[in-house]
């Protein structure tokens, strides 16, 4: 693709990077076949190739984003399926992230949308605030059918209330700042990102991770200073808020690395993992020693499945023979290129792994996407659930809290984190929400 950025524009490191990405695109269109929004809507502008043209014109023109550009970029799930398909190696992730940042700086959204996005940005990344918001939403949930109108604001409000759980699980003390000591011979030391929404919606995931890793001989460090990875703000174009969260995590983990040392930074929410593994890139232009620290953190970041393979996970219970449908989270298969390890671990634990049709297509969660684009998200959820049900499995395993929440909601399927099943087969408790043995 030919570009015509001026030397002044190319002096900006983000524009310079986007120029390189744009020039690598050869217009082949392979990405359209695997893009969820193009598959659903059939609009070229709702495909990666179409968005690339829109972003190119926007950035080259140097003018405020238009409503058309914003509409089609907002519809992008950032599922990154296009990057798996692309034969030219176009880094669409960095391009669309730059576009979103540019949009937030130059485009004035309608006030209801500004308020909603601002609320999501200050609530979701902070567990205490998020818990209070979920409690309020649970009280209002029965009234969601009374929200009037067909506007996007009304649809978003109804979607938010529908996704709110009727009750929240109790959060024990395992997720708090501390060091969980290895059981038996110590084999290593890792830090665990406990996350933000996951701490509230499913603390059992972190608890299962800690139990399993300590049984495998690993000290697990939960640092006091860590917080949200920054992905939620980052993907809404809220650059400064995202960078503040990233800096806090980087400094917290750097202190552990320079202290007793770390063998890995374990992440059990694949959306967070994709972001933390990209800290080095996102902080490349920061001042001082932050770029070097960020790169070191990214190099140590590993999905829980990678760590379990590295340290030799082994079950201790006899196999159940349970059929489990494996849902490949987009951020894991496309963002981190981890495809085989979770399925191999589930099979090793004695489960019969079933793979649905169209595993590359997003479930529609995508961070805050199911709140901001509820109609498209609902269509993708329905499509994904139909494919999962066709496997005949009664339980879905996945590696991302957003996907699990999306799939297990009203009218969905029991969905649990892969690590919860692996912990169960290695001596931990049976995951909550699974069908009874007679039903499975």
Give keywords:
single chain; 440 residues; Fumarate Reductase Iron-sulfur Protein, Chain B, domain 2; Rossmann fold; 4 domains; 4-stranded parallel β-sheet; 24 helices
Question: Approximately what portion of the residues adopt beta-strand conformation?
Answer: 5-15%
Domain count: the total is 4
* CATH class annotation of the largest domain: Alpha Beta
Shape: globular
Give me the CATH architecture of the largest domain, please: 3-Layer(aba) Sandwich
If you consult CATH, what is the topology of the largest domain? Answer: Rossmann fold
Mean of all residue-level pLDDT scores: 94
The total strand number stands at 9
Largest β sheet strand count, sense and barrel closure: 5 strands, mixed
Short description:
The protein has 24 helices and nine strands.
What is the fold's blueprint, element by element?
Elements: H1 7-10, H2 13-24, H3 36-41, H4 48-61, H5 67-74, H6 81-85, H7 92-106, H8 111-123, H9 127-140, H10 152-163, E1 178-180, E2 188-193, H11 197-201, H12 203-215, E3 218-222, H13 231-235, H14 239-258, E4 264-267, H15 270-276, H16 279-282, H17 290-300, E5 301-303, H18 304-310, E6 323-326, H19 330-335, H20 341-348, E7 352-354, H21 369-372, H22 374-389, E8 395-398, H23 401-408, E9 415-417, H24 418-425
Structure description:
There is one protein chain. The longest helix is centred in the middle third of the chain and has 20 residues, at about 240-260. Helix 23 links the parallel strand 8 (about 395-400) and strand 9. The chain has four domains: about 5-105, Fumarate Reductase Iron-sulfur Protein, Chain B, domain 2 (Orthogonal Bundle); about 110-165, no CATH class; about 180-310, Rossmann fold (3-Layer(aba) Sandwich), CATH 3.40.50; about 315-425, 3-Layer(aba) Sandwich (Rossmann fold). The protein has helices spanning about 5-10, 15-25, 35-40, 50-60, 65-75, 80-85, 90-105, 110-125, 125-140, 150-165, 195-200, 205-215, 230-235, 240-260, 270-275, 280, 290-300, 305-310, 330-335, 340-350, 370, 375-390, 400-410, 420-425, and strands at about 180, 190-195, 220, 265, 300-305, 325, 350-355, 395-400, 415. Helix 2 crosses helix 7 (about 90-105), helix 4 (about 50-60) packs across helix 7 (about 90-105) and helix 12 crosses helix 24. The strands form two sheets. A five-stranded mixed β-sheet has the order 1-3-2-4-5. With about 450 residues, it is α/β, with parallel strands linked by helices. The termini are far apart. Helix content is about 50%, strand content about 10%.
């Amino acid at each position: 693709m030919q570009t015509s950025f001026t030397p002044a524009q190319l002096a900006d490191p983000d524009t310079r990077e986007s120029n390189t990405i744009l020039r690598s695109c050869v217009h082949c269109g392979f990405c359209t076949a695997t893009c969820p929004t193009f598959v659903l809507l059939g609009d070229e502008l709702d495909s990666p190739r179409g968005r690339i043209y829109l972003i190119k014109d926007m950035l080259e023109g140097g003018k405020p984003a238009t409503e058309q550009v914003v509409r089609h970029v907002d519809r992008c799930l950032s599922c990154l399926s296009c990057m798996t398909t692309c034969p030219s190696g176009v880094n669409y992730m960095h391009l669309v992230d730059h576009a979103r940042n540019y949009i937030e700086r130059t485009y004035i959204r309608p006030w209801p949308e500004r308020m909603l996005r601002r609320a999501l940005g200050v609530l979701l990344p902070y567990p205490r605030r998020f818990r209070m918001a979920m409690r309020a939403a649970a009280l209002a949930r029965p009234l969601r059918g009374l929200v009037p109108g067909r506007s996007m604001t009304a649809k978003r409000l109804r979607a938010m209330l529908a996704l709110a759980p009727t009750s929240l699980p109790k959060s024990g003390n395992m997720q708090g700042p501390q060091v969980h000591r290895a059981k038996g011979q110590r084999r290593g030391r890792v830090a665990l990102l406990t996350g933000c929404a996951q701490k509230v919606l499913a603390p059992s995931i972190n608890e299962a991770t800690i139990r399993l890793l300590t049984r495998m001989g690993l000290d697990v460090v939960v640092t006091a200073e860590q917080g949200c990875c920054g992905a939620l703000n980052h993907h809404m174009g809220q650059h400064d808020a995202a960078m503040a969260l990233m800096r806090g995590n980087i400094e917290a983990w750097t202190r552990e690395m320079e202290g007793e040392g770390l063998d890995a930074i374990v992440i059990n929410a694949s959306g967070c993992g994709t972001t933390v593994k990209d800290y080095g890139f996102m902080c490349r232009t920061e001042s001082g020693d932050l770029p070097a620290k960020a790169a070191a953190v990214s190099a140590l970041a590993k999905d829980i499945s990678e760590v379990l393979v590295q340290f030799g996970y082994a079950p201790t219970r006899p196999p159940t023979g349970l059929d489990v449908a494996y849902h490949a989270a987009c951020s894991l298969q496309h963002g981190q290129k981890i495809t085989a390890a979770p399925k191999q671990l589930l099979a090793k634990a004695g489960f019969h792994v079933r793979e649905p049709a169209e595993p590359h297509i997003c479930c529609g969660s995508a961070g805050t996407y199911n709140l901001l684009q509820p109609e498209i998200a609902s269509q993708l959820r329905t499509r994904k659930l139909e494919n999962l049900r066709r496997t005949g499995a009664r339980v879905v395993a996945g590696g991302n809290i957003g996907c699990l929440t999306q799939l297990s909601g009203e009218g969905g399927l029991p969905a649990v984190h892969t690590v919860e099943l692996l912990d169960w087969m290695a001596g931990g408790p049976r995951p909550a929400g699974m069908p009874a043995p007679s039903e499975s």
